[in-house]
Amino acid sequence: MRIDIISVLPEIMESPLSHSIIQRAKQKNLVEINLVGLRDFGIGNYKQVDDYPYGGGGGMVLRAEPLATCIESLYTQHTYDDVIYLTPDGYLLNQKIANQLSIKQNLLLICGHYKGIDQRIRDKYVTLEISIGDYVLSGGELAACVLTDTLIRLIPGVLGDEMSALSDSFQDGLLAPPVYTRPEVWDGRSVPEVLISGHDQKIAEWRLDQSIARTRKRRPDLLNE
Ligand code: ADE
Question: Global pTM?
Answer without folding.
Answer: 0.95
